Amino acid sequence: MVLTDDFQNAIELISKSQNVLITTHVRPDGDACGCVVAMTEALRTLGKNTKPMLLSELPQWYEFLFEEKAPLYDRDIKPDQLTDIDLIIMVDVNSDNQLPKFCDYLKNQRDGARVLVLDHHVTNDGLGDVEIIDTSASATGLIVYDLLEFAGWPVTEKIAAALFVAISTDTGWFQFSNTDARTLITVGKLTEYGINATDIYHRLYQNFTPQRFRLMTRMFDSLELHFEDRYAVQQLTLKDFEETGASYTDTENLIDRCRCINTVEAAALFIELEDGRVRCSLRSTGNVDMRLVGQKFGGGGHVVAAGVHLPGPLENAKQLIYNAVKEQLKA
Fold this sequence. Notes:
This protein has helices spanning 4-15, 30-45, 102-108, 140-151, 157-170, 181-191, 197-205, 210-221, 238-244, 290-295, 314-330, and strands at 19-24, 49-52, 87-91, 114-119, 130-133, 224-226, 231-236, 266-272, 277-284, 300-301, 305-311. Helices cover 37% and strands 18% of the residues. The longest helix has 17 residues, at 314-330. It has eleven helices and eleven strands. It has a six-stranded mixed β-sheet with strand order 6-7-8-9-11-10, sandwiched between helices. The protein has two domains: 4-204, inorganic pyrophosphatase (n-terminal core), CATH 3.90.1640.10; 210-330, Diaminopimelate Epimerase, Chain A, domain 1, CATH 3.10.310.
């Protein structure tokens, strides 16, 4: 639970700043994108010079949130172009390994800019001068909403829609076990600002490109079930991306598809990367702590949703996670 002092410290930090950079973790998901947009819009209404920035490409289905395409760090924005920044707000992240390249800027090149962290993950590297961390929140979007409400700052329809996306995606459209009373009460308040939930659902979940749909069928074809069908394994190879024309951003949330199998308690999706590593997304129904599985190899996340990068080849990565999941299933 967030303490009043944490909110007050954050408000004081924002009030003393004028040029604000807002960013989030690499491979931004709905919670990350929604919070970036909500904080950008909220601070602009306060007269702040606010710049959103991403660390990797924006998935196509979140583009509707942004009025303009958000620039990418180290491609569109170089470190020497951030010399006027006096406050950096990082949402949905507080971990070094989720901030490639930008982490070096934070530690060595930010020229005295203060850092405010808003996050709900257990993994915490203490990157902020002021941090609002609430691991009980189902999404960082809830923390952002609480901050705006505490500060008495206006919530527009655009801000409400962005926070609705943040919360709805991190709860699997309110299917996941982290959907609690606080989640639903906040979402109820957001709908009062005139947002169109049906349109948002269509943009998020009924907006596949043909390439992404073909990639998903490749993933289905790779399905393996282990431990009496309790553990589902799927994979996507470099060849799958080449032949379908899909991109790495197209993999978001595909792992959740195997949750339809009634025996599955844990799932892993292995994705071959061009640098030889393997990215592994981990999911659980709650009986298996996937955060511990990811942390064992330098990753992190939540009990029901985590991730990690592993050394290749693909079969080696699959074996590492197989052994770790086996331990968790026994536990």
